[in-house]
Amino acid sequence: MTEKAAEPPVSSTALIHHAYQPPAGFEGLAPGVYKASTVVFPNVAALRARNWREKTGYTYGLHGTPTTFTLEERIATLEGGRQTLLAPSGLAAIALVNAALLRQGDEVLIPDNAYGPNKELARHELEAWGVRHRFYDPMDAGAFAALIGPHTRLAWLEAPGSVTMEFPDLVGLVRACRERGVTVALDNTWGAGLAFNPFALGAAGPAPSGVDISVHALTKYPSGGGDVLMGAVTTVDEALHLKLKFAHMRLGLGVGANDVELVLRGLPTLALRYQAHDAAARQVADFLRQRPEVTQLLHPAFPESPGHTHWARLCHGAAGLFSVVFDERFAPARVDAFVDALKLFRIGYSWGGPVSLAVPYDVPAMRSATRWPWRGTLVRFSIGLERPDDLIEDLRAALDALHG
Ligand SMILES: *Cc1c(COP(=O)(O)O)cnc(C)c1O
């Protein structure tokens, strides 16, 4: 007679309702990763009394967990702000600001060299919702001030511009907005909270000299691994924060605890990595600017780059990004062949990870409010964490392919 297999020692019910509590005395240095959609209440009165707005308790995963609260606090500290909201990507953070603040009939100002999808959102969804937009020349603070009209509700700033790397007069642009009561949001992904303090741009004084909102694609340097998408919206004003927070809740922009864990893990090495990306990028950029094939280097720490003096006045560093414009005698197809010939540099979007990246861009097609002064093809480089000499050798070899 064969014996029946024994019952498992515990039932699923016993496992689900297991009495285990993490030991109270366990004080590991890494924050715990807490995951929940549901959080439970001891009774109905507690459920009714719990308030998620002031972060005094937990009500539902979408409204925050100890893990998301920890990252929010750390990003607010990093950026010199007071409150932070997390969104599922940098672009979702930009969209949250627009959705929370803009209404039919309002106008938003966006730099002509802004992160492309920010402009696309304005052209499509915002336009369809009756929100108008104007793209402005970020290098002309006077013309920017003149663009501000009675319906201007929000102005975006970005420093430096995506891809073309012009560094604007942030202090002048912010001052123009403050004088006219326009809310100012900065895409601070490049600065990462390390190059400058977005909430204190000018001299210390009674009037606030910073932006109202700093948006950060944590996807880039805070993550550092090229394996997470996340965004942050940081503020100093409680009323503005609450306005954003209500929209954030109503739009359901939650983030996953495992992704938050990866960003929390990246933060302790953020400053070191940023410095390493910066130093390596300057070394590689310096090699390229001396090559006869290159007509223009676009890296705000170099004097020939537009807005260098604004960068020099404000910043304590630069990120690992720069672009070069090739001489116009090299047709776009030749520049593509150069990028294809690179071995260490990979071809792909985004930046902030360990792997160096290169992408050619057709800049005139990206502009509508400003004139692009160069005629050759631009390639944007994101310098990773490889040995800079190895990257330079890779570029040297690929430049042969440029000549064909
Ligand atoms: C990458 C990037 C974003 C968007 O971040 P995602 O997480 O990729 O959506 C926004 N702004 C700038 C300047 C960026 O470089």
Describe the fold and architecture.
The mean pLDDT is 93. β4 (152-158), α7 and β5 (183-187) form a beta-alpha-beta unit. It contains 13 helices and 12 strands. It folds into 2 domains: 44-268, Aspartate Aminotransferase, domain 2 (3-Layer(aba) Sandwich), CATH 3.40.640; 270-402, Aspartate Aminotransferase, domain 1, CATH 3.90.1150. It is α/β, with parallel strands linked by helices and 404 residues long. α3 packs parallel to α9, α6 (141-147) runs parallel beside α7 and α10 (270-289) packs parallel to α13. The strands form 2 sheets. A 7-stranded mixed β-sheet has the order 1-7-6-5-4-2-3, sandwiched between helices. A 5-stranded mixed β-sheet has the order 8-9-12-11-10, covered by helices on one side. The longest helix has 20 residues, at 270-289. Its cofactor is pyridoxal 5'-phosphate.
| Spatial strand sequence of the major β-sheet | 1-7-6-5-4-2-3
CATH superfamily assignment of the largest domain? Type I PLP-dependent aspartate aminotransferase-like (Major domain)
How much of the sequence is in beta strands? Answer: 5-15%
Structural class: alpha/beta
Q: Using the alpha-carbon principal axes, give the shape.
A: globular
Spans with pLDDT under 50 lasting ≥5 residues? none
CATH class of the largest domain: Alpha Beta
Q: Largest sheet, if any?
A: 7 strands, mixed
Count of the domains: 2
Q: Report the radius of gyration as a whole number of Å.
A: 24 Å
Compounds present? pyridoxal-5'-phosphate
First-to-last CA distance:
81 Å
CATH topology term of the largest domain: Aspartate Aminotransferase, domain 2
Helix content: 25-40%
What's the average pLDDT? Answer: 93
